[in-house]
Amino acid sequence: MAQVDVGNASVARNLVPADRIEAAGVQQYGQLLEQARAKNALAGDSNPQLQRLRAIAKRLIPFATPWNSRARDWKWEVNLIGSKQINAFCMPGGKIAFFTGILEQLKLTDDEVAMVMGHEMAHALREHARARMAKSAGTGAALSIGAQLLGWGQVGDLAARAGTQLLTLKFSRSDETEADLVGLELAARAGYDPKASVSLWKKMAAASKNQGSLNFLSTHPSGPDRITKLEANLPKVEQLYRDAKKS
C-alpha cells in the first residue's frame, strides 16, 4: 500500500489509550473554537478560504484509513481561525484547524495547502502526540501523567490541560520525517502535486528568517535535510499523483 518507507510505529504509544487522547483533543479543539468565536475570529461556513480548506480535506480524508484504522470512525472537522500566526494543526481524532496567517503570509497554493494538511493529518494518523506523551517521562511516569491529564482519576481542568499539551508538543525529527512522507503520499493520492512539498518548506524557511510568528516551526522543528528527503521521495509518489489526475 504505502509507497514511502516510514518504518515501524513506536510501542510507547500503547501506554496511553488512543480513545483517551482523542477525547482530550476533541475537548481542547472545542474550547479553541469557542475562544475564537468569542473574538469573532472563527470563519463562518460561507468563508471562501474555509470552503477551500474543506474541499482539500474532502479529497485527502478518503486515503487516511490505511494509515490508522481508527480514522474510519473519526468525526473529521476543518475550521479556520483569524490570526496572523503561521500555523495549522490536526488534533488526535481528526480535528483540523488552519490560521489565516499561514494561508495569507505564505500565499499557499492549493497543492501547498494539501501538503500542510497532509502533514498535520499524518501526525494524528501515526499517533505522534500519543507516543510523545507516553515517552515524555518514562513508562511509570507516563502512566501517571495519563491518569491525571486524561481524566482517568479526575476530570475537568486536568483533561483540558491534556489538550493544551497536545497543541504544544514538539515532535522528534523521526516524527517529522514520517509526517512529511505520509503527508506527501496522502496528498499525491488525492491528486496534489508532490513537488509542492518542496516549495512549501522553502517558503517556511524564508518566512522563519523574516518574522517571529512562525508558530508552525516552534512545534515542527526543521532540519537542513528536510527538503533533501522530500526530493528523494518524490519519484515514489509521482505515479500516484499522475494516476489521481487521470481519474
The main sheet comes to: 3 strands, mixed
What is the radius of gyration? 17 Å
Mean residue pLDDT: 81
Shape: globular
Overall tally of structural domains: 1
Q: Gap between N and C termini, in Å? A: 18 Å
Topology readout:
Layout: H1 18-38, H2 48-60, E1 77-81, E2 88-91, E3 95-99, H3 100-105, H4 110-125, H5 128-135, H6 138-149, H7 157-168, H8 173-189, H9 196-210, H10 215-219, H11 226-246
Parallel strand pairs: 1-3
Antiparallel strand pairs: 2-3
Helix pairs in contact: 1-7, 2-4, 4-8, 4-9, 8-11, 9-11
Written description of the protein model:
With 247 residues, the protein is mainly alpha-helical. The chain has one domain. Helix content is 59%, strand content 6%. It contains 11 helices and 3 strands, in the order ααβββααααααααα. The protein has helices at 18-38, 48-60, 100-105, 110-125, 128-135, 138-149, 157-168, 173-189, 196-210, 215-219, 226-246, and strands at residues 77-81, 88-91, 95-99. The chain has a 3-stranded mixed sheet, with helices on both faces. A hairpin with a 3-residue loop joins strand 2 (88-91) and strand 3 (95-99). The chain is globular, with a radius of gyration of 17 Å.
